[in-house]
Write a structure and sequence with these properties.
Phosphate-binding protein, 18% strand, alpha/beta, single chain, two-stranded parallel sheet, 13 strands, nine-stranded mixed beta sheet, D-Maltodextrin-Binding Protein, domain 2, PBP_domain, 2 domains
Length: 378
C-alpha cells in the first residue's frame, strides 16, 4: 500500500521548537498518546501521566546512531514526566544493536534497516518462545552528502557520480563528471578522500541501497550494513564521519542531516533527473518517504523506500529508523514502561520534538499502524 504524506511536515520545525525545550506528556502510557507541548511543567489544565501510565524501572536499548540525537530529546522529555522510568539507550550502531537485542540484553533495538527474516526467525528465544521480532518505524530523515572543499559551495552530485566517487573510479574534485554537473564552479584538482562507516550501520545500508537502485550500472556492490565497496577510509558512527569531514580537506561522506547541522557541514544537492537538483531537507525527504510501501508481514511494519524516485522536489537518500521489539513475550516488569516510551516517541509531540534536530515526522499512514502495534505488545 502506498503511504500518503499527511501535509504537516512543512510546519514541523516551527511548531516543534517549543516542544524540544519543554514538553508535558499527557497520559504518556496510553495507546493514543498525544503529548501536550504547552510549557515546561504540568499546568492545571493538563492531565499528567500517573506512575501507572508511565510504568517503572529501567528500559535498555541500543543500536542506531542515526536516531541517537532524537533519542536524547525523547528520553529527556519523557523522563521529565515519568521520573520513575529510566531509559538507557546506547548508540552502538544498527548491527550491534540488533545483535545485542537478539542476545536478550536489551528491551529494544534501534536500527536504520529492518531486521531480516532470518533474524526474525531467531528471535523466538528472546520473545518468551511465543513471540517474534517486529520492526516499528519510528522516525525518518535524510542522509546528507557532506563535503569539505573550501571555496566550493552549492555542489551538485548525482547517483552515478557518487557511485564512482565511493567506488574509487573518480579520484579528484575536478573530474569531468563533477564538472559537468557544476559548470560554473571552480573545482580544484584536490584528491577526493571518501569516508565510510567502520561499524555495521543502517546508514551505510540505506546509502548503498540508494546507489544500487539509482545507479545500477555504476554500483556493483549491492546494499549492506557493512560498507560493501573497497577503498576509502573508515570512522566509527555518524559522529565519527562528521568529525572527519570537518577536519579533512577534500573529504566527502554520508551521515544524517542532524549530524550535518550539528557540525555546520557543507552539503551537496542531488540531481535525480527530475529537473532542479534537490537540496537536503526534511521536507524534501518527506516527499520520498511518503512513497514507501509496507512489506513486512505478520505484524511487522518493515518499509521499502523508493530510492530511485524522480518525484520533483523529493530528496532520494533517506532512511527510516526502527525500534525492534517482541510482539509477544516481552519482560513483564518493563513492558509498561517500554510501551509508554514508545507511545510517546510515535505521538505527534514526540515526532515533532525531534524535528529541529533534522528529523521528519512520519506520515500518519505509518504512525497510526505503529500506535496500533504498540497497543498489542504483550
Amino acid at each position: 500500500m502506498k503511504l500518503q504524506r499527511n501535509g504537516r511536515t512543512k510546519a514541523l520545525a516551527i511548531g516543534a521548537l517549543a516542544v524540544v525545550s519543554s514538553l508535558t506528556l499527557a497520559a504518556c502510557g496510553s495507546d493514543n498518546n498525544n503529548a501536550s507541548s504547552t510549557g515546561g511543567s504540568s499546568s492545571s489544565s493538563t492531565t499528567t501521566a500517573s506512575a501507572a501510565d508511565c510504568g517503572s524501572g529501567q528500559v535498555l536499548g541500543a543500536g542506531s546512531t542515526a536516531q541517537q540525537n532524537a533519542m536524547q530529546i525523547w528520553i529527556r522529555n519523557f523522563q521529565q514526566q515519568c521520573s520513575g522510568v529510566t531509559i538507557n539507550y546506547q548508540g552502538t550502531g544498527s548491527t550491534a544493536g540488533r545483535t545485542t537485542w537478539l542476545e536478550g540484553k536489551t528491551q529494544f533495538a534501534g536500527s536504520d534497516s529492518a531486521m531480516k527474516a532470518a533474524d526474525i526467525a531467531k528471535s523466538s528465544s528472546v520473545c518468551g518462545g511465543t513471540g517474534h521480532a517486529i520492526n516499528l518505524p519510528m522516525v525518518g530523515g535524510p542522509i546528507a552528502i557532506a563535503y569539505n572543499l573550501p571555496g566550493v559551495s552549492n555542489l551538485v552530485l548525482d547517483a552515478p557520480t557518487l557511485a564512482k566517487i565511493f567506488s574509487g573510479k573518480i579520484t579528484t574534485w575536478n573530474d569531468p563528471a563533477i564538472k559537468a554537473l557544476n559548470p560554473s564552479a571552480s573545482l580544484p584538482s584536490t584528491p577526493i578522500q571518501t569516508f565510510h562507516r567502520s561499524d555495521g550501520s543502517g546508514t551505510s545500508a540505506n546509502f548503498s541501497a540508494y546507489l544500487a537502485a539509482a545507479a545500477p550500472s555504476d554500483w556493483s556492490y549491492g546494499s549492506n550494513s557493512q560498507w560493501p565497496a573497497p577503498g576509502g577510509q573508515a570512522a566509527q558512527g555518524s559522529s565519527g564521519l562528521a568529525a572527519q569531514v570537518k577536519q579533512v580537506t577534500g573529504s566527502i561522506s554520508y551521515f544524517e542531516l542532524s549530524y550535518a547541522k550539528a557540525n555546520n557541514a557543507t552539503t551537496a544537492s542531488i540531481s535525480t533527473g527530475s529537473g532542479t537538483p534537490v537540496a537536503v531537507s526534511t521536507d524534501a525527504a518527506a516527499k520520498a518517504i511518503s512513497e514507501a510501501t509496507v512489506v513486512g508481514t505478520n505484524g511487522d511494519l518493515a518499509l521499502k523506500l523508493n530510492y530511485a524516485t524522480k518525484t520533483a522536489g523529493a530528496y532520494p537518500i533517506s532512511l527510516v529508523t526502527y525500534e525492534i521489539v517482541c510482539n509477544k513475550g516481552n519482560a513483564a516488569a518493563t513492558l509498561p514502561a517500554l510501551k509508554s516510551f514508545l507511545n510517546y516517541t510515535i505521538s505527534d509531540a514526540g515526532q515533532q520534538a525531534a524535528a529541529p534536530a533534522g528529523y521528519l515526522q512520519l506520515p500518519s499512514a505509518i504512525t497510526d499502524k505503529v500506535k496500533a502495534a504498540i497497543s498489542t505488545l504483550s
